[in-house]
Known about the structure:
By secondary structure, the chain is an all-alpha fold. The chain has ten helices and no strands.
Amino acid sequence: MMIRYFIQGLILGFAYVAPIGMQNIYVINSAINNKKIRVYETTAITILFDISLGLACFLGIGSVINKYIIFKYIVLLFGSIAVIYIGIKLIISVPDDFKKIDVNRSLIDVVITCFTVTWINPQAIIDGTLFLGGFKASLSYEASHFFISGFCTASFLWFNGLTIIVRLFRDNFNNKMTRKINIVCGTIIIYYGLKLGFNFISGNGGVIQLQIFK
């Protein structure tokens, strides 16, 4: 039955998206700090980009990065700068009143940031290509549709579930705790950005050797 391929894709999708990384950190921070409507906009946009990346990896876009080395290093350079900038913004943000916390970011700003934490990460593209490409090669044409549908469903369920859980416990956070979360999240994101920058400077294939979680 084809449903088993859907379930397989669902399980592997959860395994792929669950590890703490830039996407999860950004969604958690948004769920704590933003108004409800902006939170779910952020979640929806993150899901959209995550699914688009999954589909692209399933079709083998990572091979393009590996084939054209200049494209790989362009992504590394601008990705490093963009990710570090996002981390710094989180660290220096200081909420004045937790009950009135609202990042007041424009929708286009949210779109750009979600795109950055998802697509400006060559390791995620390469890992995703190897991860999904391997399964695609072993599946029939029809089975592959069920598999990737399950994979995409996992992204939808994971980020929505993460947002809902964090929002439910949001009132347990006070202003001081939120500030600490911003600092921790920002520091981790800067760490990812610095690793991207190191891979760019080293220029020795470190993008494949150093693991940068999605």
